[in-house]
Amino acid sequence: MVAPYWLMKSGSARNKKLCGKNADIFTCSSRTTFPRHPENIRRDDAKLKFVFGTCALQALDLVDQRSVTCLSSPSGRKAFQVIGGSGRLYTCFLSCHYCPCPAFTYTVLRRNQGLLCKHILAVYLCQAMAVTQQESISDQQMSAVLSGTGGP
């Protein structure tokens, strides 16, 4: 798993550019940040809350509810679908660090007050804990998912 850009080593010039004033907080890679065992992540929920705020507990709830599904197609494309607390389905893209939810648009993109929304954090946590639901879909179905015109 490739570390997301906000978890790169703080010493690099690229990290300073991408993380800005928070660059020194994220000095680890995803392999050392999130334990592979679900029971260990609970011990670290205070650390997650410190870094990600209330979004961390909401993301852990999504993990507990098994709300994250990785869609993969024969061509190798991947997208993650997360069922939000309201029951709405969000298609998240880790390759470009994007979620279509209102919280991501407002908090991350417009106000630059957060690094991610609960849906993207839930995807990262599920991957780190190896509890992501897996679903194989056709390339045509993936095309519909990526264009926003349909789902699997």
UniProtKB/TrEMBL annotation:
GO BP terms: double-strand break repair via homologous recombination
Keywords annotated in UniProt: Metal-binding, Zinc, Zinc-finger
Domain SWIM-type: 90-128
GO CC aspect terms: Shu complex
Single annotated GO MF: zinc ion binding
Pfam families: SWIM
PANTHER family: ZINC FINGER SWIM DOMAIN-CONTAINING PROTEIN 7
Protein name: Zinc finger, SWIM-type containing 7
UniProt organism field: Poecilia latipinna (sailfin molly)
